[in-house]
Design a protein that fits this description.
Shape: globular
Mean pLDDT: 92
Number of helices: 18
Radius of gyration: 22 Å
Number of strands: 14
Strand order of the largest sheet: 3-2-1-4-5-13-14
Strand content: 15-25%
Length: about 450
Amino acid sequence: MTEPDFVKRDFIMCDLIAKKRDGGEFGAAEIEFWLRGVLDGSIPDYQTTALLMAIYFRGLSEHETFLLTDAIVRSGDVLDLSHIPGCKADKHSTGGVGDKTTLIAMPLAAVCGLTIVKMSGRSLGKTGGTADKLESVPGFRLTLEPADLQHQAEAERLVLITQSSNLTPADKRLYALRDLTSTVDSLPLIAASVMSKKIAAGADVIVLDVKFGRGAFMPDAANAVKLAELMVELGRQAGRKIAALITSMEAPLGRAVGNALEVWEAAETLRGYGAPDLRLLSLALTGEQLYLAGLAETRRQGFRLAAQALEDGRGLTKFLRFLRAQGGDTAKLEQGGFLLAKTVLVVRAPRGGYLQAVDAARVAGIVQHLGAGRLRVEDKIDHQVGVWFDKQCGDKLTSGEPLAHIYAESEEQAKAAAAALLSACTFSDTLPELPPLIYGVVTTEGFIPWTELQQDYQ
């Protein structure tokens, strides 16, 4: 009888390091041995970081990446959603500036027939975390007992909680070491990290939003497509229905960057007053989930079902019911008075013409400096600070009209942020030609470019 791959076997760690250094390929038992040692402390950090660096330079094959992803999933708890009726769906973004699409796409998907049980993280660095945004709603609870989670999933079809401490513990340890050793930007390690969490979270349908540009982790569209192709394949091998939108993050998404501001903008979008880019992407992500789940026969029908749920107010109603179900007080979100920053400063256009570009990475830095982000997970944040853009790229300007509003703790901080924001903006005399927000979609059958997709998103 052949010994199964998962049977515990002992290897010598320095031999594994040398094997990958020389371009060798690992089997399941070797990866299991490594991760077991990472978690129980039998393999010292210096050997794991040496192996991570070898992987960074030598890479992992697609099969190795799947084995690593699967081993990370099995390193901790796996959320079992089989007892919750309906098709379970999840949406994940690789991180962006002003990206609050989860707050819009989740309720739209729920009212269109999907069940959303989502685990979300907190902000770290320049990207905002959905959990932090929702905590700007007074009383909102990010932890639920299993019985309460199931009841809400059945009653509302929508639950969002923070990630379980024992979900993919191997990934947490590996990421901490990758962050300290400049081995974060390895495509197979990124793919294994993202997809292990999505698979462990138990959804049947997964839609990814893989971003590229100045405000994203991936520098360009070509690399974003490569990462998306790998993650989609990992999802397919794990038995999930999966696709990935490739989207630009050169400029902030929508108008708001900052926790309470983004929750407010999400509500405004569900009221029908959303910025065009935010509305488009939110509907595309929702429609893709409906299409993959079989609730829409075509991508175009999925988009239109989502648009109808937004336009007739069902999405907003679901969003508010979801917040209240998890303890949130929605009175100020519904009636006004939700934005409570001590100082609000108007940033005025220094000249007429057009807003040509806004550097998303610099805006993220400004908002983080105001106190809306964190460098370490344990850092405290200010939910009320941030930037609201009155104008977006391509908009016409007259000199002196409001370009943006700074929400800050003090006037001194607001003035510094205003000066920095103006330096992050580029102006032109002629209408700029802006690239499409959605570059394309990666499916299990291949890449579909924007030119073939745009007719579906109308």
